[in-house]
Backbone:
């Protein structure tokens, strides 16, 4: 069974990671958001006096262990490439511990195999892009939580204690999941006896807790105060059309999906598998380990607390996003062998004997790898015009400031290593002072972008010290302008400018005044010669 597990894991890793690793201009949104400033570790001259870099390096978004890992890795490898290699290692670690945990709780090889295989399938269908692909802080959530539960279940307090410290250093929300899991389990026992028998584990909780408290209490003044739940309800940025769509139009969406919800859509497949298993096994035979109960209960308690103290403990969904799939996975794994036995005894169906041979599986997966990679090569080619834009911007002086439509600016810091005035990825409305500045910049950007007055654009450039403006001709097409231009409230503001101005300086500029032009993209220098 382990052979099948390794074979399928190899298939998933190859199909998911090979194309991104081979193309230096392939990057996810999370990578564009969080990795660019890591290039300062290789070249300190980059991103000086940059607000977006200040946010990421403040310690509020990225924990110290994660930053230290990239700081160390940058001496040997390109940060973007490093972020594409890390997920491979994290998935392997997660599968290994999922196998061992399933085997421990389920009592055998079959349970371990099922737990590992279910996790690999989850990674292939949903989890790679959502949890691992970017190699960011939350990519460490699964391996750290699964390994902690394994050490905790198997009474290895020293390793569990080290794991807790790593959780606080790499992804603090998952530390709270582990702490509450331990607390719930202690409630059934004597607290004093449990603490005495697990003194080294308590030390791990204390050290990890101190790291966590330090990161939550220290906040640079330029960020301002953390937005409250009541304030967020009044801001369109947190509405259905906002940048951080937290509050939904319908209650079921708010409770079960997205940033605020339980994300039950992520475990729907597990639930669909559990229904026939429960029907066949019945209440008396269906097994539920106390550990699984504790994972679910502790996660739901944290989910509720996160809603009560909204945003102070990050997003509520983060406390169920990784733990509930693990719990449901284990439920299936520990009951799978009994389910197969019942199918054989009642209906004469022996699924284990019907498993295809290793050679057949290997051949099938090899063909699947070729087909999937071929499809990805043909369908996910990078936009050559955008790549040429990134290459041109990277030739500009290191201290230049670039402005443009926010979505177009997302890739510039990471792929061109140059500062941008504002982009979509880091227009995060959670800190008052920071977002107040981002909000002002975004309104001013659209005022200049859709202006019919050259002087207005010059005033904008001087106000912020913008050196170049990137123009995308598609943004002046009437089909685009008649749809959603940008997130609320800026999209509505941009539409009002379009209706008022009708013609636009940046769109009408002749090619001779552009310093770069490729496809729909052009770059305009912020000087009088270009804008007059």
Residues:
């Amino acid at each position: 069974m382990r052979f099948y597990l390794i074979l399928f894991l190899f298939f998933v890793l190859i199909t998911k990671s090979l194309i991104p690793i081979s193309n230096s201009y392939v990057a996810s949104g999370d990578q564009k958001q969080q990795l660019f400033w890591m290039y300062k570790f290789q070249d300190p001259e980059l991103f000086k006096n940059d607000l977006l870099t200040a946010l990421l390096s403040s310690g509020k978004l990225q924990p110290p262990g994660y930053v230290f890992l990239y700081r160390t890795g940058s001496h040997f490898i390109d940060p973007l490439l490093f972020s594409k290699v890390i997920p491979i290692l994290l998935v392997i670690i997660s599968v290994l511990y999922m196998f061992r945990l399933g085997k421990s709780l389920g009592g055998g090889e079959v349970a371990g195999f099922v737990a590992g295989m279910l996790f690999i399938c989850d990674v292939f269908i949903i989890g790679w892009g959502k949890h691992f692909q970017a190699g960011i802080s939350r990519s460490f959530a699964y391996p750290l939580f699964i390994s902690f539960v394994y050490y905790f279940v198997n009474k290895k307090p020293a390793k569990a204690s080290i794991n807790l410290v790593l959780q606080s250093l790499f992804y603090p929300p998952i530390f709270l999941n582990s702490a509450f899991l331990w607390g719930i389990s202690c409630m059934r026992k004597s607290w004093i006896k449990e603490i005495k028998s697990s003194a080294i584990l308590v030390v791990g909780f204390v050290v990890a807790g101190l790291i966590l408290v330090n990161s939550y209490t220290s906040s640079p003044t330029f960020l301002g105060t953390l937005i409250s739940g009541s304030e967020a309800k009044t801001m369109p940025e947190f509405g259905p059309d906002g940048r951080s769509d937290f509050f939904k139009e319908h209650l079921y969406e708010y409770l079960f999906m997205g940033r605020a919800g339980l994300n039950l859509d992520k475990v729907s497949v597990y639930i669909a598998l559990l229904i026939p298993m429960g029907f066949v096994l019945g209440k008396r035979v269906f097994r539920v380990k106390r550990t699984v109960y504790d994972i679910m209960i502790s996660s739901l308690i944290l989910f509720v607390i996160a809603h009560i103290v909204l945003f102070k403990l990050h997003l509520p969904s983060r406390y169920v996003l990784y733990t509930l799939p693990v719990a449901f996975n284990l439920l299936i794994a520990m009951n799978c062998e009994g389910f197969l036995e019942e199918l054989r005894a009642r209906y004469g169906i022996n699924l284990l004997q019907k498993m295809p041979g290793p050679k057949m599986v290997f051949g099938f997966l090899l063909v699947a790898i070729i087909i999937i990679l071929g499809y990805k090569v043909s369908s996910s080619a990078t936009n050559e015009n955008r790549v040429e834009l990134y290459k041109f911007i990277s030739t500009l002086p290191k201290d230049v400031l670039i402005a443009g439509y926010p979505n177009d600016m997302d890739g510039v810091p990471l792929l061109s290593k140059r500062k941008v005035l504002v982009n979509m990825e880091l227009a995060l409305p959670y800190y008052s002072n920071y977002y107040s500045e981002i909000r002002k910049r975004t309104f001013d950007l659209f005022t200049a972008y859709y202006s019919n007055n050259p002087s207005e654009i010059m005033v904008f450039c001087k106000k912020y010290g913008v050196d170049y403006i990137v123009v995308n001709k598609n943004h002046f097409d009437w089909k685009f302008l008649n749809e959603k231009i940008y997130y609320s409230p800026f999209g509505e503001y941009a539409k009002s400018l379009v209706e008022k101005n009708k013609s636009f300086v940046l769109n009408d500029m002749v090619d001779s005044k552009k310093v770069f032009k490729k496809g729909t993209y052009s770059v305009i220098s912020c000087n009088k010669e270009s804008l007059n």
